[in-house]
Design brief:
heterodimer; A: alpha+beta; 21 strands; disordered N terminus; B: mainly alpha; 13 helices; 0% strand
Chain lengths: 579, 328
């Protein structure tokens, strides 16, 4: 009896200790990311929940760090001079009302009556300041200053960008809609390091021209809240009004967790990759297209061969490889048709008008085992030891290692399917899954044999893809372009010429595109496989009128990924209607 | 006694230095250059990328020889500075950990203490009640053999997804931000329960089995038989048995801490709980030396302190240790 009493008291004391600890712990947890305004739970009918961009805490509020800033920093808070609509291939005047070339100077006229969220007006000096941050060490925008931009001058509400020699028109077009415009009166006090690589997370200084301002969630919080602000210039100038008072971004922990939240209507717009979503598209679950491939294409996945290694240095072998891969099976069985087969040029569907169809007909390829076998045979790749796989020309064993990052489950399945289908043609491929950083090391230093890559995203023209394939010179480390180390001076010269051709010169563009595509199709420096989607799933329980292929004015990019709100992502959000 | 304490403290210090050095070295043994990974994620243009590589390498101090990096690490540690994060460029590891540690502690501390208390109590009861022994014990065996992550997944699927009773991801509802309100507290509690439960259940099984076996063993010991022969009441005998059985369980607690911490980390990942476990996952994926060091440092310090406390408690509850320590 005595013993029991004692134990019970022990249990009670233990529970008290635990309770006390919980209170202490909870109080520390509450400190982080507390909200700036009063009411507790947000009204569902006025709140749009989005997800899919953010992996990890909301720490970076610096719009100059393009790949990293927290969801919405560029687009909802800071804005750009122009936006770019990839579906209609046109630039949308935004903070600028127009821009034009005058010789090698680009002159921009700023919109009147645009104010920062602290009430001060947007000035030409702000624009000059923003572009000049590209000169600072560590800037991701360094390229524009290193390749021609010389100085920026202002006069009234006009800003002039002076270039040396022929400007890189294509690159400049990209900067026009990706360069964030920040308020000089705030940012001038930041150090160079803070501007290029700082988090700039003092929320009282998060002053933008965009439709939203900070609402809460900085730091360790699992959501980031943006509150609609009054006085957004586009209300008056364009009659545009954001229908939701709050946008809450939910940071991803796993695609599975996001899928559960999405299906339970806790997320309205999900930009996550959901394997098997094709089977769930019914009722309240919708996508851009109502049929396969369901999503817009955001980039092409390429099979990148290391062209410095045998036999991948032989374009005939690469051609046989291209014929031996059954991409259709990957699209169907791995992706459930939420992606589509890539054109042999690799150019995204939005760039269709630039594809030289004659060249594709003459030089293109499609899955054909017999043809692959024939090319191998003709070029001296024979199975000498009867193991079912061809050997190198010198008779040595041939076994190619194909890598994708560990954990990228769709790609892991895809390369198994690739290995499986090339086997039929007699090419031995062994799939391997190093983790991301190990893969980057192998890829950048040129130690790999085959790798899958989708580095270059949808943008204002196919120039970026040629740059990706043909960029010279080849360095010891190839960080973001030409991983295959393919050296073709002529292709690089044509790419540079394309860069230096203004988009208005359509005939010259077509001609250069055609020449470049012929080189691509003939030499296959990399083999385009399928188009990865601009993953976007809508749950229409609380919001409707999402971006869609049908419906008037709804053809927008339905993504909150970095770089998409400043395309037509903001339009996609503005068109939403509460139920 | 003080000599005993001094010796213990010295041992803990040595363990700390060795553990922290290993903690410093292990991330650097992973293949892959963190800066290349960072630049690959930024997807910067090659012209900018080259400049960025030098810039980041220098700003993270990775251009220094290893011995200097090691010394800098200790210097930073002495000043309470765990360095900058590579995965979350611009954030300090201190800030990231400060945000995450409360969540991990909120899971770990109650799970460890409650499972220990409840497990021991149920185990002791099972030792003398046949019905309990036949019902709870088999369940305890299953629980203790269950991997933390698996149980977490099963709970998330059944309770969270199938029944839809409790939320399965995050630490509070998406419509809330941390605040001192009942609404937040309720949301926090409902989100906390499943990850807590999965940790609690696995540990509970282990403690219950251990205690049950120890009590049976103690009840068959000579002193118990002697007491019974003297006609002592059953309660008294059991009380003595319980007190003796608690001792090995306490050393067991110290030993089990590491495993529970490991379990908590994977449980956090399963439930998307924003604690240290989720940070470690990101740190490993991004070769974030500093964040990984910092997160493991938290574990090292936590486990060492807990062990030290158990050592001290042991002296209080076991008079033999006190006598031995006095002689030492």
């Amino acid at each position: 009896m005595v013993a029991r009493k004692r134990t019970q008291r022990g249990l009670g004391a233990g529970a008290l200790v635990v309770l006390a600890l919980c209170v202490v712990v909870a109080s520390t947890a509450v400190g982080a990311g507390a909200r700036t305004d009063g009411p507790s739970a947000l009204p569902r009918s006025q709140t749009l929940y989005v997800s899919g961009k953010q992996w990890g805490p909301y720490t970076d509020f610096n719009p100059f760090r393009q790949g990293d800033y927290a969801t919405g920093v560029l687009g909802l808070v800071y804005e750009t001079l122009f936006r770019y609509d990839p579906l209609k291939d046109r630039f949308i005047p935004w903070l600028a009302t127009n821009g034009r070339w005058s010789g090698s100077t680009y002159v921009v006229t700023l919109r009147n009556l645009v104010t920062w969220s602290d009430g001060r007006p947007l000035t030409a000096a702000d624009v000059k300041f923003s572009f000049e941050t590209g000169k600072l060490p560590g800037s991701e925008f360094a390229t524009m200053w290193q390749t021609g931009l010389q100085r920026v001058t202002t006069s009234g509400n006009r800003v002039s960008f002076h270039f040396r020699g022929t400007p890189n028109y294509q690159q400049w077009d990209t900067f026009r809609y990706t360069m964030p415009i920040v308020p000089r009166h705030i940012w001038a006090s930041y150090s160079a390091q803070a501007i290029t690589t700082g988090n700039n997370d003092d929320m009282s200084k998060l002053i933008g021209t965009g439709p939203f301002k900070y609402g809460g969630g900085k730091g360790g919080s699992q959501t980031l809240q943006w509150n609609r602000r009054d006085g957004w210039w586009a209300n008056r100038a364009l009659g545009k009004r954001m229908p939701m008072r709050y946008i809450v971004d939910i940071h991803n922990t796993s695609n599975t967790a996001s899928l559960q939240n999405f299906l339970q209507s806790k997320i309205d717009l999900s930009n996550n990759f959901f394997p098997g979503i094709d089977k769930m598209i019914k009722g309240n679950v919708k996508t851009y297209y109502s049929r396969a491939p369901y999503m817009l294409a955001a980039n092409a996945a390429w099979l990148v061969p290391n062209t410095t290694k045998k036999p991948l240095d032989d374009r005939n072998f690469r051609r046989a490889l291209a014929f031996s891969i059954n991409v259709g099976r990957i699209v169907r069985d791995d992706y459930g048709n939420i992606v589509s087969k890539a054109s042999p040029t690799g150019l995204l569907p939005t760039w269709r008008k630039w594809i030289d169809t004659t060249a594709v007909r003459q030089l293109g390829y499609a899955y054909n085992v017999d043809r692959a076998k024939q090319i191998l045979q003709q070029n001296g790749y024979r199975d000498r030891d009867g193991d079912g796989f061809v050997e190198n020309k010198d008779g040595s064993k041939l076994d190619l290692r194909l890598i994708v990052p560990n954990g990228w489950s769709d790609w892991m399945t895809a390369i198994q399917m690739i290995a499986d289908s090339t086997k039929a043609a007699g090419i031995k491929i062994t799939p391997a899954y190093p983790d991301f950083n190990a893969l980057v090391e192998e890829r950048n230093s040129g130690k790999f044999e085959l790798v899958i890559n989708n580095e270059v995203q949808l943008s204002n023209g196919p120039y970026v893809y040629y740059d990706y394939l043909f960029r010279l010179p080849i360095r010891e480390q190839q960080t973001t372009r030409n991983f295959q180390r393919y050296a073709n001076q002529q292709a690089w010269r044509l790419t540079t010429q394309l860069n230096k051709t203004p988009s208005t010169n359509v005939a010259r563009h077509k001609q250069l595109n055609s020449q470049l595509q012929r080189i691509m199709l003939r030499d296959l420096p990399a083999i385009p496989l399928w188009y990865n989607g601009m993953w976007a799933q809508y749950n229409t329980t609380h919001w409707t009128n999402f971006a869609s292929a049908s419906g008037s004015g709804l053809q927008n990019t339905p993504s909150t990924w970095n770089g998409y709100l400043n395309m037509t992502g903001i339009d996609a959000l503005a068109k939403l209607r509460p139920r | 006694m003080s000599l005993y304490l001094a010796r213990k403290t010295f041992l803990y210090l040595v363990t700390f230095v060795v553990a922290v050095s290993v903690d410093w070295a292990i991330p650097r043994l992973m293949p892959g250059d963190p800066i290349n990974g960072l630049i690959a994620r930024l997807q910067a243009d090659p012209t900018a990328a080259e400049q960025l590589h030098g810039y980041f390498t220098e700003s993270f101090g990775l251009d220094q020889p290893l011995w200097r990096q090691y010394l800098d690490f200790w210097r930073g540690l002495a000043q309470g500075d765990l360095g900058p994060s590579i995965a979350y460029v611009g954030s300090s590891v201190n800030d990231l950990l400060l945000n995450a540690v409360p969540y991990t502690l909120a899971l770990l501390v109650p799970a460890i203490l409650l499972s220990y208390i409840a497990g021991n109590r149920v185990g002791a009861l099972a030792a003398r009640r046949k019905a309990l022994d036949n019902s709870v014990l088999p369940l305890a065996y299953v629980l203790t053999a269950t991997p933390y992550m698996w149980l977490a997944l099963v709970l998330a699927y059944v309770v969270g997804f199938r029944w839809g009773v409790l939320p399965v991801s995050g630490a509070y509802d998406f419509s809330l931000q941390p605040a001192w309100t009942w609404e937040f507290a309720r949301s926090f509690a409902t989100h906390w329960f499943l990850p807590f439960l999965s940790l609690f259940l696995v540990s509970f099984g282990g403690w219950a089995i251990g205690m049950r076996n120890l009590i049976i063993y103690e009840l068959e010991a000579d002193y118990a038989n002697y007491l019974q022969a003297l006609g002592a009441p059953n309660g008294l005998v059991r009380r003595y048995a319980y007190r003796n059985a608690v001792l090995p369980q306490m050393s067991g607690l110290a030993l089990a801490l590491g495993a529970v911490v490991g379990g908590a980390l994977v449980t956090e990942v399963v439930f998307g709980y924003p604690g240290v476990g989720s940070l470690i996952l990101t740190a490993v994926q991004n070769r974030d030396y500093f964040l990984l060091q910092g997160a493991f440092l938290f574990i090292i310090i936590g486990v060492l302190i807990a062990n030290f406390v158990v050592d001290l408690l042991y002296m209080v509850v076991d008079p033999r240790t006190r006598v031995g320590a006095g002689r030492a």
